[in-house]
Amino acid sequence: SSLESYQKALSLESDFSIIHLKMGVLHQFELQHPHLALEHYHQCIALQGSNHKYSHAFVNRGHLHMDSGKFELALDDFTEAIVIDARQAGNYFYRANVHAQLAHTEEALKDYSTTIQLNASHAQAYINRGLVRFENAQDFEGALEDFSQAIELQPNSVLPYVFRGDLNRIHFRALPAALEDYNKAVKLATEEYRPSILVSRALLHDMMQNSENCLADLNESIELDPQNEETLLIRSTYHFQHMHLEECLKDVNQALGINPDSTEA
């Protein structure tokens, strides 16, 4: 096996750095042993420090720290990777993600922008920068540009249509544009994303006073995800507003069956 081969190499090698790096990769990505992977990356870094050849040890260790919620340690590792290789766009992207997680808005925007400067086709950097601009920086025009650029780069990607639709619905009140984006997203969506997109489109239909389509989208979303308490409560509100009191009560009771401690129900 790969594990046995690497272990044998470790016993024969005098310079263990590359073997520790490969063992870390094996445990991290194939064997799903994050703690063992972390130990091997520690060993590799201790032996080689800032050697350009082993910058991936910092990157991979940074991802492990991210996965375990140790964001400051992840920030240190991605920063070290940037020091070693300042022309690698991915290193800035990973650090930007940590900054975004920690609500370091300006730092996140700067790193996403550097990512894009180094790799203008990095669609996910546009998406993530757009989200930071939308949710944290209140830069709605910039967010719109970022989501649109991501769509241009990846026209079959679902999320930028959703985010641009949300931006047009919530901030710009550009309802026809939002509907166009949600329609595209629904067509592209996998089972994972479809229920939530249908809810967003339902809320838009409600704003456009299209009650029939609003209810149809809520019904389909619940059919796909019947244990979603929030969607049931949204539909219960719809029924209450339209004086469908029996249906409203049924949805509230179903939501309480899912979460008896719900304060919203």
UniProtKB/TrEMBL annotation:
One Pfam family cited in the UniProt record for this chain: TPR_16
Per-repeat ranges for TPR: 55-88
SUPFAM superfamilies reported in the protein's UniProt record: TPR-like (SSF48452)
Keywords: Repeat, TPR repeat
Keyword check for Hydrolase: no
The keyword Repeat belongs to this UniProt entry's keyword annotation: yes
Domain of life per record: Eukaryota
Protein name: Uncharacterized protein
Organism listed in the record: Percolomonas cosmopolitus
